[in-house]
Amino acid sequence: MKFRELRADEIECRIGQIGKNGNGLSLLLYKTARCDMDLLDEVVGPENWQREHYECKGNLFCRVGINTNYNVPESVNWVYKSDCGSESNTEKEKGEASDSFKRACVNWGIGRELYTAPFIWVTDCKIENSKCHDKFVVSNISYKDSKITELTIKNEKTGNVVFEMNKISNNKKKEAVNDIICTKCGKPIMMLTGKDNKLYSAGEVAKLCKGMCKECYEVTKNERKNTVPKYIP
Ligand SMILES: [Zn+2]
Question: Is pLDDT at 196 greater than 50 in this prediction?
Answer without folding.
Answer: yes
